[in-house]
């Protein structure tokens, strides 16, 4: 797997009259998890969509190592190893779990290796994905990403529509992806749970990054997290 980081240099994303988020600078390295958290409407989804190519960035550059990728199409970026799990579960409901996973697990051996990490899915392998619970469907989405072995995985609100206890069962899977060498950018509403598995954190509010640094520093100082959410003192 390529060791080049994914780098954002003063990235801004605009919708309508003005920027939704601007001045974003950070690097996501393979094997690391960055939690991107903040209040609703802070620009988290817009930022993650600009990385995958769903939405163009209006300023700045997005680099993969020394190569600029923000001028590439979404399909071209996917070919560089960037995978994007968008809000909501994106299974093919009429296909079985096996058929869904076979979209990225190209050989029987790859399918077997993927299922070894998702034993719950193995029990439902011949069930239509649309008949699975919300948590199981999200597991199918993660399993597809696992089989594809992306260099970078962008996850937007994986917990959407799920009970916290179900979401907590999925978090170790995200950690496994990172352990396998994938860099993960995790956009999440359950801040404490996301920070619990992340190496680094970005807190955005009112369209700007108000904190960027280690998870340890953020979790050890509740006031710092509170100020970052409110858009107060910046600690970048």
TrEMBL record:
Question: Transmembrane stretches, by residue range?
Answer: none
Q: Where is the ABC transporter domain?
A: 6-231
SMART domains, from UniProt?
AAA
Under InterPro entries, the record lists: AAA+_ATPase (IPR003593), ABC_transporter-like_ATP-bd (IPR003439), ABC_transporter-like_CS (IPR017871), BCAA_Transport_ATP-bd_LivF (IPR052156), P-loop_NTPase (IPR027417)
- Which GO molecular function annotations are given, in alphabetical order? ATP binding
Cite the entry's keywords alphabetically: Amino-acid transport, ATP-binding, Nucleotide-binding, Plasmid, Transport
Recorded family membership:
Belongs to the ABC transporter superfamily.
Q: What is this protein called?
A: ATP-binding cassette domain-containing protein
Organism of derivation: Arthrobacter sulfonylureivorans
